[in-house]
Amino acid sequence: MPRLKTACTPWLSARAVDLATLDTRSTVREQHSRSCFDFLVNAYRDFKQDLWQMDEESESDSGNEDLDEQNGAAGVDGSSGLNRWTPAMTPMHPSHGKMTSFASRHLIDQRRQQFVSLDNMPKPAPTPPESVNAVIKCGILLRRTVRNELLDIHELMTQAFQAALLSILFGLVFIQLGDSTADLRNRKAALFIAFTLYQFMAVFDAIAKYAGQQMMVFHEMVNGLYTTTPFGAAKILGELPGSLFLTVIYTIPLYFMASLRLEAVAYFKYLLISILLMQVSRMMALAASVITQSPNYAALSANLLFTGWILTAGYIININDLWAGVWWIAFISPVRYAFQGAVVTELGGRNFSDCTAAGAGANTSYVSNTTTTTTAPTCTTLLGDNDLRDLGFDKLSFNNCAAILAGMYCAMVATVLIAMHVRRNSRPE
Predict the structure, then answer these.
(1) How far apart are CA 236 and CA 254, in angstroms?
(2) CB 149 within 8 A of CB 242
(3) DSSP per-residue letters across 24-79
(4) Residues facing 379 on adjacent strands
(5) What are the b/e assignments for 46-71, b being 16+ CB within 10 Å?
(6) Digit-coded pLDDT (tens) for 370-397
(7) What are the CB-based long-range contacts (under 8 Å, 24+) for 121-127?
(8) pTM (2 decimals)?
């Protein structure tokens, strides 16, 4: 782990991304801001110096204050009493015991006139936002996203360990499935578990990750650093490698420990359908976060929606037996299409049989005075295609299910981008 982070450090430092580079006016603005800052610092120093000098002058004249006050009160040398700032005439300044409020206000007005000159300083020439290419913005944001993912390598490794541990646990439960009719039911259960629990956890992970970025993204968009399309594209592409890595780590132990269809084509189909379902689930969580602008409401809405997808996937309740009022949920459920595609690949063209010795199948033969009874095994065979027909999974092939999931993913991405554009000025909770 430390070696990987050390190896990534030169690459990160050489390609450090500054958000100011998103705006072509940033260099001029930085120079203007620096000149304004230097002017304010110098003015503040001069102001403190003048106050200190006035305090010293007031201390040197403190010996004559009592006499001036008496003369002013008695009317003797009244002009002297009126022209001198004394505690008897004006209140003392709260922060300077020796200087009157009139003197401090006069000095502050003087400095205020100097600060007004800031308006006459040269300002950066405005440039239209269209001059910054959206592709450049997306590239910079993509590098920032990848850099953040690599800097947070410990969290990625923790999630990888979690995915591997969960997959091994499921593999131990469904270890070494055979070709009996009972194993047919267990294979469907293994596939259903593989497409529901981990994806359900990934939904909340995506919501929590975006919740930590909402406030920063809101301020950057309000300040005009970038628009919704570059940020959305960079976020999706930047988080894609980590999501693919976790999906591969999750699929390998369960698939081979459960002895699912041990064919290269079957495994890669299973991997493809798992990746598509994972990406659709994450995009659904991101869309819920963008629309609600609140992690609590996003988690609630995503939880309700994903629960409906699980219940209408076709394993708990047969699709053919669903009530017409909720059948539309199964029609838009990515869990249903992922489960259907995996089951079609796993059961299609296979036979599952149970052979047991039964007395009903006994054959009796007579050899001289001895009676010999031979018991023939009774075999029950269940075709995988017939089971697919009973589940209602005989109408769509694997390619159809994969294409539907790909279309759902594109629709979710479009929903995220549109929601970001609509809610770009909404302050997150």
Answers:
(1) 27
(2) yes
(3) TTHHHHHHHHHHHHHHHHHHHHHHHHHHHHHHHHHHHTGGGHHHHHHHHHHTTTHH
(4) 355
(5) eeeeebeebeeebeeeeeebeebbeb
(6) 545 555 567 777 777 888 888 888 888 9
(7) 121/32, 121/35, 121/36, 121/39, 122/32, 123/32, 124/25, 124/28, 124/29, 124/31, 124/32, 125/25, 125/28, 126/25, 127/24, 127/25
(8) 0.67
